[in-house]
Design goal:
mainly alpha, two-stranded antiparallel sheet, globular
Length: 677
């Protein structure tokens, strides 16, 4: 048997830390599953934005025809008067060689507990690209640091071939052989991280404080670039991007090195996964050494230990994993056996008899398999098996994806794909179906209980719809749409004014700044082509226009914007003007020229201008609105916006603000779009 040559770690990191990967997959930390059961449940990674609707593919698609589009971003001069970043670093003259515009990120809150929210910060794309530029200047050094950090299993970032099982095997190698184990992690790590701590660990705390404004130093440069993503704030990191996770691993590699050094004369070994550290040791007295060392390290770099998660543990508890992987393997084999038997049946009686025996032994009941699977999933969630919720959708997704189309089947009901899809919505026929829930409804309920699961559910729905297309039958999509539209109506389908539970929940979530929940509902509605009732559209527009204590994230707002464009002439003129008045109010700034792409709602502004350029219906609506309202600043009109900006650009703006705005104008000139609705 020929052994496959292991992938070179250097080649792995060289591809991962590259402009194409950090742009195409890194901004939202997208990952392709490649039919693998692996999942990355790393803290600091957020599965909230759906890649099929929000992505940077347009940059690369356009670059096939116009090479300048990708080159604009990759070679853009992000530093005032400096084209070569290496010239910023390494010379001894203490001058301010770079200036970064402090941009406003997209704030997006997700539930932390039942009573508290966790804020995520999606950086302005310009600031994100600037940080890529800073990282790429030290790419070789960062790769060397990651390769040397043997105690970290999060340094692979969940990328193939370092999937979940491989990471666990590496963790075992680090920890196996000890008598005792101790586990700890850092409290609210990403959100309480002090950006100046980056220079502390690379320069020493005292030295870093003295040289904080010496902008020739790379650690300070990195600190400034991170802060520029969040309005100059030093508190917390802009969570959600692969780039932030790389920076954290680069930072933590120094801490791991410090821990290794301090444990040299002991039996202690350890494994770190992001901020979660497990220590293995052989003598009870060594626990005091571990606690002393980890406390000193935390104090030195402004990191806080999580008192609730500091505990002695066992190897068996560490290795407690989900039992969902491979759950449908037997069922999948039985389906393939039946397909094979049907396809090879001929006129030979003996052969057919053997095939009939094979099919009899391979009989399967998909509905029962789904029901028992749900019981197992529910139990693992109750037992708090880490990652079991996400993994459940992934396992189900790969099972459905593996089922092949029986193109020879005469009846649709005999097709294996149809059977597998129909079982998702199948109910007990001995009882009224109206009073029962289906398996797919129970899986959907998991997402209402934990909104982190909405994206895995949508990815499952992607696979379901792919299979529906193969057999030209939208059985599950139609069912889900009907269920959601009637949810909460008690079956009274004729009461049009009686809105579904989810539609009312959407309004509640918007009003209370529950960003992930509102986004999830809009995502589900868009995926199933469910339109909001006109009355609810009006209520939401009024809420956004009149509320001063409610914040709206750009990702959710873009759903409303594209629903407006999709509706075209179905919206009454007054309602059109009310909607555009809402957008105008969101985009208004105190200083039009200075803040246009630096301030909040930069993504909404870009998409509005892009639509004005490329969609004739939207452009005509905007023109009609400005004629009627006579607004002094036509924020939604591309021609007016660009002309007015260029007029205000004459000496009024600083170089750093010009760079941000010019960056977006160049992308607009090349028709680069960030959405694919």
């Amino acid at each position: 048997m020929n052994k496959q040559k292991p992938i070179s770690e250097y080649d792995f990191y060289s591809k991962l830390i590259s402009w194409p990967n950090l742009l195409k997959k890194g901004y939202f930390d997208f990952q392709e599953f490649n039919n693998s059961y692996s999942y990355d449940d790393a803290y600091g990674k957020t599965d909230v934005i759906y890649p099929n609707y929000f992505n940077l593919k347009s940059i690369f698609e356009n670059s096939k025809k116009h090479a300048s589009v990708f080159d604009i971003i990759k070679t853009y001069d992000y530093f005032d008067g400096i084209n070569n970043l290496d010239s910023v670093i390494g010379h001894k003259k203490k001058t301010k060689n770079y200036k970064f515009a402090d941009t406003t990120p997209i704030l997006f809150t997700i539930p932390k507990t039942e009573d508290t929210r966790r804020p995520l910060k999606f950086a302005n794309l310009y600031s994100y690209c600037l940080l890529i530029d800073v990282i790429m200047s030290k790419k070789e050094e960062i790769i060397a640091a990651l390769m040397s950090d043997k105690e970290s299993t999060s340094r692979y970032f969940g990328y193939s071939p370092y999937d979940f099982n491989v990471s666990k095997a590496i963790e075992d190698k680090l920890l196996i052989g000890h008598s005792y184990y101790f586990k700890t992690d850092f409290s609210n790590f990403y959100h309480s991280f002090y950006t100046h701590a980056i220079s502390w660990i690379f320069m020493g705390k005292e030295d870093a404080k003295v040289r904080r404004n010496d902008q020739d130093d790379y650690a300070n440069l990195l600190d400034h670039a991170i802060r520029s993503q969040q309005d100059g704030e030093t508190h917390g990191l802009p969570t959600g991007s692969l780039l932030t996770r790389i920076i954290v691993e680069y930072f933590m590699s120094r801490i791991d090195k410090e821990l290794r050094t301090k444990f040299l004369d002991t039996s202690i070994t350890f494994n770190r996964y992001v901020d979660d550290i497990v220590f293995g040791y052989d003598h009870p007295k060594e626990l005091y050494v571990i606690k002393k060392v980890i406390s000193e390290v935390a104090q030195n770099y402004g990191i806080y230990l999580n008192d609730k998660k500091v505990m002695s543990t066992t190897y068996n508890k560490i290795r407690k994993n989900s039992q969902l992987i491979g759950y449908f393997d037997t069922l999948s084999k039985n389906i393939k056996s039946c397909q094979l038997a049907r396809n090879v049946k001929g006129t030979d009686t003996k052969t057919n008899h053997l095939l009939n025996i094979l099919m009899q032994g391979a009989k399967f009941n998909v509905k029962n398999a789904y029901n028992s699977f749900y019981i197992k999933v529910n139990q693992e969630i109750l037992d708090q098996v880490k990652g079991s919720g996400k993994l459940a959708f992934r396992v189900l997704m790969f099972f459905i994806q593996s089922v092949k189309n029986d193109k020879e089947s005469k009846n649709i009901t005999d097709n294996s794909i149809y059977k597998v899809l129909h079982a998702l919505i199948e109910k007990n026929t001995k009882v009224s179906e109206k009073i029962q829930s289906s398996f797919i409804e129970r899986m959907l309920q998991l997402t209402f209980s934990d909104t982190k699961l909405i994206l895995p559910f949508i990815q499952l729905l992607d696979v379901i719809q792919e299979k529906e297309n193969e057999i030209n039958n939208g059985i599950v999509t139609a069912y889900l749409k009907r269920v959601i539209e009637q949810m909460g109506k008690g079956g009274k389908e004729n009461l049009a004014s009686h809105e579904s539970t989810l539609i009312n929940k959407l309004y509640f979530d918007l009003k209370n700044n529950y960003h992930q929940e509102a986004y999830s509902i809009m995502l589900l509605f868009t995926k199933l082509n469910i339109n909001l009732p006109e009355e609810m559209n009006v209520k939401i527009v009024t809420l956004i226009t009149d509320s001063n204590d409610v914040t709206f994230d750009d990702f959710t707002l873009l759903f409303f914007l594209h629903n407006f464009v999709k509706s075209e002439k179905k919206i009454y003129l007054n309602d059109r003007f009310e909607f555009l008045n809402m957008i105008q109010k969101l985009l208004m700034t105190e200083d039009f020229g200075k803040e246009c792409f630096v301030s909040a709602h930069w993504l909404l502004r870009y998409e509005v201008l892009f639509l004005y350029k490329t969609d004739s219906f939207f452009a005509s609506c905007v023109d009609d609105y400005y004629k009627a309202e006579k607004c002094p600043n036509e924020d939604m009109s591309f021609e007016f916006f660009k002309a007015h900006y260029q007029l205000s650009n004459r000496g009024k703006l600083s170089d750093k603000e010009k760079k941000v705005n010019n960056f977006y104008f160049k992308l607009l000139d090349n028709n680069v779009n960030f959405t694919s609705f």
